[in-house]
Write a structure and sequence with these properties.
Rossmann fold, six-stranded antiparallel beta barrel, magnesium, topoisomerase, metal-binding, Topo_IA_cen_sub2, globular, Topoisomerase I, domain 3, DNA topoisomerase type I (single strand cut, ATP-independent) activity, Topoisomerase I, domain 2, alpha+beta, about 700 residues
Length: about 700
């Protein structure tokens, strides 16, 4: 009798897997499936809770590594170990027990590098060895796809190489983050800096790219330029045109006017020399990857990339869309076939109706050779009922509608427009006017209408004839050159993807193109959230601005690989070799260690050039919050990431978290708990749903929820 144990990455994923089969029983830590054709003896699904295990922290290896000191760098353990993440011990023990009892273990975490890392890190920490392991490889949580995936489980050979690749990346990121953050912070503190810097292989060059745009805007000098604009009155309407001149020197523009015997603001006569009309056909946009969807959602609804990903994840877990963290814009013939079969149902869900222009696959959207781990984001075979659609939140509805419209657009006709160019001569000086007229909406009828500003860019020109005489009034138009605009959050995603354009080395450029720049499709939004949290950037009205703290970070890392996307290119080049079985994790970690040694030697001199700024943040940690409720001598101190008793060296172990159930615990809340053993009812805690509760301190000085308290 084969005991199959399946590990999902998170509870919602486990629930989606279970929904494809018949459940026998549920517990707090697992779901038991009834025997069926796929699992003749049944199966047990258990799960991680995000990252169930994590790399140990420096002080877990050596207590003296807890304090930030220059003479302790570099911090590089002989071997790297994992530990159970805080608050996840119970789930880990349940997974460990199930793994020990299993005959076959199935890795059903997300099908990417990090999914492999999550599974094997948990497996390694359980100590379970020598059991057959298989891999679930699917792109959709729809029931049919889940069943099909479990009936066609794959070997774990590729998965193990992906794990080595991911673990090499994770350990090296840990080494760079721990050592570089301490090195730069401590050297700047010698110059009077009273904060700390967080430095990372991906987040730091991302901040630096924003800093470069800031410098471009700051150093930009706006200059006037001059053109000759004509306003023309034809029999069937008026239109504007420009002469082919654009000069900084107004005198040159005036000289051209004089040459043709023209004066400003006089009633003149013009002749239409040429009317050129071209019919143009615009194909529908490519299918969405996560980043293109994040860009559209930010432009249209000002959603942050992080919010778009969270919304997509909810839709994925509801079985309505395919895997969200994809970097692919193509589907295979298999997906195309089911989309064709569901076309009428999708149209009904969108409350629209059109006759498909073609039901044959087009290589712009359908290309088997372009699909690797994941295909583009498309709706699943599950078409939501009117009731299910009305149950979606406004944001879920918007995102689902966008995915559905983009998918249906590939079946719709082209957008057809007529582009008109009119050449009007006034005293032999030619003026060019361009405009467009919509002939057929085609796929554009599926999307919101463009803004008025966009429509004004392409004005509709009146109907005119070659040789027609028109009234004309001319003037010299003065305009100012405009600085580059700040990035929006949506543009940050594209900037991170295309940062290869800013790298000089051709080989690095090619690698960055291949890996699509900084971060991955799955991590870019969280990197943006991290640099916001670190106060390196701030977002106002959707525009991204760098802070004084961000400027100081960039000045500190300028000239090092930490400021350049090239570091990611070099890493990804070797990580790919590990994934292919041509490189080793050990060699990669050794090279990272050598990079850190070089950084430690060179940074003290380069950091002298940095101008230490006030970051606008007050130094809040290492300050007393309250008297320790447990011992008589200590005080509860703000330790940056947590609160703890100052008397810990003498054995007082009292400590409190900075965050509890998604809510930040302020110094005042901790003070109230220490002094009164309870707080008032507080809002903003997060569980399955947001909730409010009072907090109390129990006899062991642990914080507990008190739902009984009403005020």
């Amino acid at each position: 009798m084969t005991n199959v144990v399946i590990l999902a990455e998170k509870p919602s994923q486990a629930k989606a897997y279970a929904a494809a089969f018949t459940t026998q029983e549920k517990s707090k830590t697992s779901i038991r499936l009834k025997p069926d054709a796929t699992f003749p003896n049944g199966a047990t699904i258990t799960w991680g809770v995000g990252h169930l295990v994590e790399l140990k922290e420096p002080h877990d290896y050596k207590p003296e590594w807890k304090k930030w000191k220059l003479d302790q760098l570099p911090i590089v353990p002989d071997r790297f170990y994992e530990k159970v993440s805080k608050g996840k011990w119970e789930q880990f023990q349940a997974v460990k027990k199930l793994f020990q009892q299993a005959d076959v273990i199935v890795n059903a975490a997300d099908v990417d590098r990090e999914g492999s890392n999550i599974f094997y890190s948990i497996l390694r920490l359980t100590g379970v060895k020598g059991k057959p392991i298989q891999r679930l490889w699917i792109n959709s949580l729809e029931k049919d796809e889940v069943r099909k995936g479990f009936q066609n489980l794959q070997s774990n050979d590729k998965d193990l190489r992906m794990f080595d690749e991911a673990k090499a990346r994770q350990i090296s990121d840990w080494m760079v983050g721990i050592n570089a953050s301490r090195l730069f912070t401590l050297l700047l503190q010698k110059k009077g800096f009273n904060q700390h810097l967080s430095i990372g292989r991906v987040q730091s060059p991302t901040v630096y790219l924003i800093y470069q745009r800031h410098k471009e805007i700051e150093n930009f000098v706006s200059e006037p330029f001059y053109q000759i604009e004509g306003l023309f009155q034809a029999e069937k309407g008026s239109y504007k045109g420009l002469a082919k001149i654009k000069e900084k020197d107004k005198a040159k523009v005036q000289a051209l006017m004089d040459q043709h015997g023209l004066k400003e603001n006089e009633d003149l006569q013009g002749t239409i020399q040429n009317v050129d009309k071209k019919t143009k056909y615009q194909k529908s946009p490519k299918l969405h990857s996560l980043s293109t969807l994040q860009s559209v959602a930010n432009r249209r609804w000002k959603y942050t990339p992080s919010h778009t990903l969270k919304t997509m994840q909810k839709l994925y877990e509801k079985g309505l869309v395919s895997y969200p963290r994809t970097d692919c814009n193509y589907i295979t013939n298999s997906e195309f076939n089911y989309l064709v079969n569901k076309l009428d149902a999708y149209q009904k869900a969108m409350n629209i109706s059109f006759t498909p222009a073609s039901l044959k696959p087009n290589k712009r959207y359908v290309n088997n050779s372009k699909v690797q781990e994941h295909y583009a984001i498309i709706p699943t075979k599950t078409v939501p009922t009117e009731k299910k659609l009305s149950g979606l939140s406004r944001d879920e509805h918007n995102i689902y509608h966008e995915v559905l419209a983009t998918t249906l657009a590939m079946f719709h006709g082209d957008y057809v427009y007529e582009e008109t160019t009119i050449m009007t001569h006034v005293n032999d000086l030619p003026f060019k006017s361009t405009g467009r007229r919509e002939v057929k909406q085609g796929w554009k009828e599926l999307f919101p209408k463009p803004s008025k500003a966009k429509q004004e860019k392409d004005p509709i020109l009146p109907e005119v004839q070659q040789g027609e005489e028109v009234g004309a009034r001319l003037h010299i138009k003065e305009s100012m050159t405009q600085p580059p605009k700040p990035y929006t959050e949506g543009q940050l995603i594209n900037m991170m993807k295309t940062c290869g354009k800013l790298v000089d080395d051709e080989e690095d450029v090619e690698i960055l193109k291949e890996v699509e720049g900084l971060g991955t499709e799955a991590t870019r939004s969280s990197i943006i959230e991290t640099i916001k949290t670190q106060n390196y950037i701030e977002v106002k009205k959707n525009n991204v601005a760098i802070t004084d703290k961000g400027i100081m970070l960039c000045e500190a890392i300028e000239g090092t690989l930490l400021s350049s996307p090239a570091m990611t290119a070099k890493w990804e080049s070797y990580l790919k070799k590990i994934g292919n079985g041509d490189g080793s994790k050990q060699m990669f970690i050794k090279q990272t260690s050598q990079f850190i040694e070089k950084l430690i030697q060179e940074t003290p001199e380069s950091i002298q050039q940095v101008n230490v700024r006030s970051t606008g943040e007050k130094k809040q940690w290492n300050t007393a919050v309250a008297k320790c409720p447990a011992c008589t001598n200590g005080e509860i101190i703000d330790r940056y990431k947590f609160y703890a008793c100052s008397n810990y060296k003498n054995g007082c172990k009292v400590s409190f978290p900075k965050r509890l159930a998604g809510k930040s615990l302020s110094a005042n809340m901790i003070k109230t708990l220490c002094e009164k053993k309870k707080t008032r009812v507080l809002k903003g805690f997060k569980g399955k749903k947001p909730f409010s509760t009072a907090l109390t301190l129990d006899e062991e000085y642990k914080i507990k929820f008190d739902f009984a308290k009403k005020t």
